[in-house]
Structures are given as C-alpha cells and as structure tokens.
Amino acid sequence: MYVAGRWRSAPLEDAVTNPYSGELVDTVPRATPRDVEDAIAAAVEGARAMRRLPAYDRAAIMGRAADLVEDAVDELARTITAEEGKPLAEALGEARRIPDLIRLSAGEAARMHGETVPVDAAPGGADKLAFTLRQPCGVVVAVTPFNYPLLLVAHKVAPALASGNAVILKPAGRTPLTALVLTRLLLEAGVPEHGIQCITGSGSELGPALCSDERVRKVSFTGSHEVGRQIAAVAGVKRLSLELGANCPVIVMPDADLDQVSAAIALGGYVNAGQVCISVQRVLADGQVYADLLDALRPKVEAIRVGDPFEEGTQLSALISEGEARRVESVIEDAVAHGATLVTGGERAGAVVAPAVVADVSPELPIFRDELFGPAVAVTPVDGIDEAIRLANDSSYGLGAGIFTSDVRNALRFARDADCGSIQINWTPLWRADLMPYGGLKGSGIGKEGPRYAIEEMTELKTVVFHNVT
Ligand code: NDP
Question: Which residues of the chain form CATH 3.40.309.10?
Fold first, then answer.
C-alpha cells in the first residue's frame, strides 16, 4: 500500500484470488490503525501541497497521468480481470475509458470558479464588493466497491486531485491491485508524494476510523446501501457522497421494437455477470407483448458465452466469489419456489451462475424487492403505463430506469414520474457517459458523480466581501 510518501507493508497480509480459477493473484498488506493515522496525517500535509498547486500544474499532472494510463491499458485490464473476474474484453473497455475521464477531470478543474455577488442590491451594501472563491475541500476519503476496480476509483480520485484535494483511497478488499497500479501511475505523473494514499485492508476495520476523522472533510463512497448507512452514521459534520445499490427496472410498452428490447436486455442484465449497480434487474412488460418478449429474450440470453474470463470470446464469467454465486442461486430458487418460472439459466458451477431469465415474478419476491447483483433478470407482466410506473417506483432504490416505447407521451411521463437518478428512453438503465451527472435517489444514495458534478461536491465556496469600496 502507499502511505505517507512510501510503499509499505504490514505484519499481516490478505490474499487476492481470481474468482474464476481460485488462483492466488497477489497479496496486499492489511493496514493497522497506525497506518490509518499515518495516512490521515500525511493527507493533511498533502492537502496543503495540493492546494498550493495552480490549476495549470494540476492539469499538467493529470494530462501526464492520462497518457501513462493509456500506455498501461493492457496491464490495467489484465489486473482487473485477474482480481475481479470479468471477461478481458470488458476489462479493456473499462480501462480504455480512464484516460478520457482523467482529462475530463482536468478540464473541469480549469473551469472551477466563483462568481461576483451583487451585494450592492442589499440594504447597506452600496460601498461593498463581493465574490465567491471555490476551493478544494482538503482531505477526501474515497471508498470503492469491487465491481469496477478502476472506473469507480478513477471517478473519485481524478476529480478530487484535479480540483486540488488530497485523497485517501480505500479500494475494495477483493480488488485492491488495480487501484495500486493507478496510484503508482498518478505518482509517476507528478502527484505530490502526500497527495494520494492508497490503503489496503478490511473496510469494516479501517472504514470507521477513516470516515469519522474530523481532519477528513469529504467522504466519497460507492458500495452497498448497508455500508453507506454505516458510513453516514459515523461521518459527523462533513461532506458525504453515497453511490449505493439498486434493483433497476425497465418498462416494455406494446409499441416497442422487441428485437431491440431483447438485445438490450440480454446485454444490460448480464454485463459483469450482472454485478453493476445499473444492471437490468426488473423487466416490466405490458401483457400485450409479454409472451413475445420472453420468446425474443430467451435465445439471446442462451447465446451468451460463459467461461474463463481470460479466454477470447467469453461474455460472462464468475461472480466475485462462490459465496456470492450461492446467494444469487438461492434467490432464483426462492423465486421459482414461490410461483415464478425459470425460463432459462440459473445453474451454478463454482462462482459461475448461468445467465438466467425468471418470468412471472410477483412484486413481493426478494428477486424483485432486493438488489440481486447477479446474472438474472426478473420479468413481470403489467397492464398499461400506469401500473408499469407504479411498479417501477415500488422499490426502496432509485438509481436508474429505462422505458422502451415509441409514444413520446409515455416517455415524457416516465421521465417525470420515475423516482430515479437517470432515465433511459429506448434503452435499459445500463448506460453511462462518464461526463454525465450520475447518482441515485431514495435508498440509492446522495450526490452525483461525473467530473463536473463530483468537483462541485469536492470543493467549497467561500464568500469574500470588500468594505468601504468608494
Ligand atoms: P460493499 O458496500 O460491501 O463495500 C464497498 C467498500 O466499502 C469496500 O471498499 C469495503 O471494504 C468498504 N467497507 C466495508 N465496510 C465498511 C465500513 N464499515 N466503513 C467504510 N467502508 C467499508 O460493496 P461491494 O464492494 O460489495 O460492491 C457492491 C455494491 O456496490 C452493490 O450494492 C452495488 O450496487 C454498489 N455499487 C453502486 C454503484 C453506484 O454508482 N451507485 C456503482 C457500483 C457498485 P472491503 O471490501 O474491504 O470490505
């Protein structure tokens, strides 16, 4: 791990294994409370150094980092696949997004500004002049999940550094290696030695101390709802972004093109073995096209190639662990035991679950209510747009949602009434451009990512008033 300006080990280490083969990939140090204290103390110093860097210099560092990441795309992708288990083609897709994301962050940081405030419009303000200054908030703690070990790390670290903060990164215990490679590249690019710390170990052990510390001004967390709640409970008075779980719905109206819909669902429900926060989980299909949709979907899902993530052509591989695969298998079995129909898939071999379609799912079932985070979609018949929207919103989550319809009135109604952070018209929830505001409503969290929006939340406004200006 990288703490206080040097790479350091710890008395105990944790193994990182490949979820598909079970092979040991590497080991990482298990940080101690002493390491946490050192990281925070160094980050306070780092924040001072970062704040002194003009935007021009920060942009130059980030530009170099983007170039270095570009050169290291293969290494990064192979590390992602080794520790997370997603197919190499998907890992390459993830890694190739990062240089642009870093450059975007640098560009946004160059537009970080305040504004003049017309205090002369206030009583007694005639001889005054005021403006706001936007400044970095200082020490940012970034806690990230396993499923996108590079993308979701970069969505925090790049805006934080570009806007002049110091970062303490705590990557997921199962996928710390990619974050360590990125840390190395950022340091090579010229990030000041205390500007970034990457601390490895167990989140439940390190998290409370990191997130509750008063020297930390901002916690940016992506992960499960449960851990988000724990962080909110200990964070105290500081800025908090929580990008949490979901069980995203997609509505299919009778006027949709079922070929397009089934192809999009066969992708959106199964990318990264369904371990995506905006994965398609609930398909709400109008009764008029329900049977036809299942007919169109089944062969496309059965055509998904399952196998070794390093093998060319593999489209779906292991979940993050066998335990997770067992959990997903049991949620599917529970649905079938309670009246749902298994259209295809669902068999488990080790950590791999065959891509599944579960039909006739009643809204009371866990596969509809909870977050599945696995390669299955639950299909439920609905009677018209009113019931579809009601059921889409019948969730404690609200991250993404989609609707397939050629009727603009349905589309607009859905856009207004869906309680979700992002709404896709004629696509599934699984779509993201890195520059767009991204973040959920309700139990899916607080705040937005996407460099411009993340920087807004990682910086603070000060108001400056000049008096006696005559
Ligand atoms: P977890 O919530 O289990 O873990 C996320 C991170 O939090 C890990 O780094 C973990 O460390 C750490 N952590 C665990 N306990 C604490 C604690 N008490 N205090 C501080 N940090 C802690 O999520 P997963 O890694 O399993 O990721 C899957 C979840 O992430 C899903 O719910 C998914 O929907 C959500 N997610 C949301 C996204 C969004 O943008 N809304 C995007 C991607 C995923 P350790 O691993 O060491 O336990």
Answer: 248-433
Q: Quick check: CB of 146 below 6 Å from ligand 1?
A: yes
Pocket test for ligand 1, best of 224, 271, 370, 438 (most atoms within 8 A of CB): 224
Superfamily of domain 2-244+443-466: Aldehyde Dehydrogenase; Chain A, domain 1 (3.40.605.10)
Catalytic residue positions, numbered: 243, 277
Kindly give, in sequence order, each residue whose CB lies less than 8 Å from that of residue 75, ignoring residues fewer than 6 positions away.
181
Ligand 1 center to 368 CA (angstroms): 21
Two structure tokens written together for 294: 């299942």
d(CA 191, CA 185): 9
Q: Which residue ranges does the chain devote to CATH 3.40.605.10?
A: 2-244+443-466
Report which residue type is found at 402. G
The third-level CATH classification (topology) of the domain covering 248-433 is Aldehyde Dehydrogenase; Chain A, domain 2 (3.40.309)
Cβ 383 vs Cβ 286: under 8 Å: yes
User: What global pTM score does this model have?
Assistant: 0.98
- Interacting residues of 237 by C-beta distance below 8 A, sequence separation 6+: none
Which residues 6+ apart lie within 8 Å of 388 measured at CB? 251, 253, 284, 286, 382, 403
268 lines ligand 1 (CB under 6 A): no
CA distance 358 to 297: 11
Cβ neighbour number for residue 157 with a 10 Å cutoff: 28
* Pocket lining: 397 vs ligand 1, CB cutoff 6 Å: no
- In the chain (470 residues long), the average pLDDT of successive 10-residue segments reads 98 98 98 98 98 97 98 98 98 98 95 96 97 98 98 98 98 98 98 98 98 98 98 98 98 98 98 98 98 98 98 98 98 98 98 98 98 98 98 98 98 98 98 98 98 98 96
Q: Is 373 in the pocket of ligand 1 (CB under 6 A)?
A: yes
86 neighbors 150 (Cβ within 8 angstroms) = no
